[in-house]
Each structure stands twice: as structure tokens, then as C-alpha cells.
Amino acid sequence: MIHRYPVNYIAITQKFKSGSHYGLDLGWNSKYCEGKNQPIYASADGTVYSTKDNDTTGKSWGNFIKINHGGNEYTLYAHLKTGSLLVKVGDKVKQGQRIATMGTTGESLGNHLHFEIYKGGTGTNYRVDPLPLTYVFDGQIVHNDDKSIVKYYTPITPSVVRDISKDQVKTLKYVNVRAGAGTNQTILGQVDTGNIYNFTETKVNGEYTWYKIAEGQWIAQDKANTYLEVLLKEEKQETNNETNAKLEELTKKNQELIDENTLLTKQNEELKEEIKDLQQELIENETYKQFFDIKETAKYKIKLNEGEKIYIK
After folding, report:
1. What are the C-alpha distances in Å from 129 to residues 136, 242, 248?
2. In 3D, which of 158, 157, 167 has the Cα closest to residue 198?
3. For residues 70 and 49, what is the distance between their CA atoms, to the nearest angstrom?
4. How far apart are CA 113 and CA 103, in angstroms?
5. Which residues contact 209 (CB under 8 A, 6 or more apart)?
6. Which pTM does this prediction carry?
7. 262 with 254: CB under 8 angstroms?
8. Residue 159 contacts residue 197 (beta carbons within 8 Å)
9. Residue 148 confidence class, pLDDT cut points 50, 70, 90
10. Coil, strand or helix: which one is 124?
11. In which element (H, E) is residue 278 found?
């Protein structure tokens, strides 16, 4: 998941340290972003999981907001100014949405934001270093001392829909987008599970096959094929309606041919009978012709009774 820094003026006053400090402390500058009253923003889309306001104990986080980002990932925003919370439990928030104001409640020696990221659950044992997971977005200002340690978000080419006329890849988990085809290349950001991207080039480098999803943007497939699903282009497929229409047309033509063949067969039989009759008539005509062509000089005269015939060889 891509987290945006939750303040627009970024000055890291204390880093994550396992065993003693489990988040990033972010300070302020009177010249930028309302000074010590910096607005606090949601680092990513999510749902407000828990809150506290009007804390008077002076202990721990003081006033805070915790957001559930899905996939067992959470963020915490602590030491918030009393009465500044703009969200409540159950509210849906978007990345970059203002949720509160920087303060100094709880165990705090001055105005700052204590920012934590949890991966795996809500318990404190799931806290991880936010620095490698959080990015500077356009419009945010970074203190000079921190410019070399923060990561900058480069907008990743948008996900597209499945297009069978193009070669594409679908992400099966969160994957890094790098500036080149290699694990030594700069990480530009991450893309979410289920996204689809067109690819125009592939390279094999070590244990990974790399897919170019945009100019200067590559994602990798491992040998076990757990990162990506490769969707190669297919021949153009007809829709069901087109297929059904074609089938109906061919069926109709086939029936017409069957009917035509039946008619031709009947006509053929009739012609055979007519030919047979004509052949018989021809035989009879030839016989009578031979009979009447007997010359008068014949030696014998033959008298035939009605219905009798004579054949001349």
C-alpha cells in the first residue's frame, strides 16, 4: 500500500527505533502549513477504527485516530489537538483527507505528530518502520535535512481493464514498481492486488522476469508465478449474440438446401419416368415404322389380326 505523508510540511524529528520508539515524529515550521497547527491528513484510504479526544491524562498518545486500511494494515496519528478531530469511528476516509490538527496532548514535550504503521493487526507488536512505506506526494514540502532519506512518489500508470487484443499482466499481490528491470533499480512505488497493466517489453534478469508497463516503470514475476498472472492477447472473439445470429442464419440456409434437394430429387424421379415413357414410345414408333415400310414386292403377304404385331429383323 502507498502511504502519503500525513502532513504537508515534512520534518522528521525522531525516527522509528525498535524497542524504544515505534513510529515517526513529524515536526513543524512557522513559515509553512499553519506552523504548529499543521493539518493532519489520512495517509491512505480506509475506515476510522478508533479515536480519542479531550484526553486530560497527559499520558501515552493523548488524542489520537487509528485508521483501518484493509488487509490487516492500520495507521495511528497521535498527540492531536483537543477538539480538532474531524472524523469518528466508522467514517470512510480518502487518502489526503484532513482528519485533525497537530497538537501536544499525551506524553509530548511540544507540538508534533507521532505517526505509526501496523502491518498484520492492531496490537502494538505489529508496528513497523513507516519510513520505507511512506511517500512524498506533489505539493508537499520536505525539510532540507530530510530530502535524502524520504521516498518520493512517482504516479504509476493507471490500471486498465482486460483487453484480449493486448498483452497484459494482472497483479496477484502488492508489487513494487521499479525504474528498470532489476532489483537494484529504484522503487517508484507499489501497485495494488488485482490491477491490470498493458506491457510492451519483457526482460529476464536473475530469478525474475520483468514486464514494462510504462516508460521507466517495470514490475517483476518470480519463478513460482506468485506475483503476476500473464494475460496474452487472443484472437478476436465474437460475442454470444453474434455467434447465435450466425448459427441461426446457417441453420436457415441448411434447411433451404434440404428443401431444395428434396424438390430436385422429386423432379429427377419425374424426369426419369418421363424419359422411360418416351423411350418406350420411341421403341413402339420404330416398330410400326418398320412394319409399314415393307415393300409391296414382298414375296408373301401376311394378314395380321387386330392387336398382333410383326417384327422384321
Report:
1. 16, 56, 64
2. 167
3. 11
4. 7
5. 202, 203, 220, 221
6. 0.58
7. no
8. yes
9. very high
10. helix
11. helix 240-292
37/208 Cα distance (integer angstroms) = 47
- How do residues 45-70 score in pLDDT, each as one tens digit? 999 999 999 998 889 999 999 999 99
At 211, phi and psi to the nearest 5? -120, 130
Which of 172, 285, 297 shows the shortest CA–CA distance to 226? Answer: 172
Instruction: Report residue 74 as a C-alpha cell.
Output: 492500520
* Amino acid found at 177: V
Q: Which residues have C-beta within 8 Å of that of residue 82, sequence separation ≥ 6?
A: 53, 54, 55, 63, 103, 105
Task: Single out the residue of 108, 88, 98, 106 nearest to residue 26, CA to CA.
Answer: 108
DSSP 54: S
Cell of 271: 424426369
Rounded Cα distance between 181 and 81, Å, is 46
Structural contact between residues 98 and 40, judged by C-beta atoms closer than 8 angstroms: yes
Of all residues in the chain, what percent are helix, strand and coil, respectively (each to 5)?
20, 30, 50
Residue 47 identity? T
Task: DSSP letter for 193, please.
Answer: T
Amino acid type, 288:
Y
**pLDDT tens sequence across 75-130:** 999 999 999 999 999 999 999 999 999 999 999 989 999 999 999 999 999 999 99
4 CB neighbour count, 10 Å cutoff:
18
The residue written with cell numbers 498483452 in the block is 167
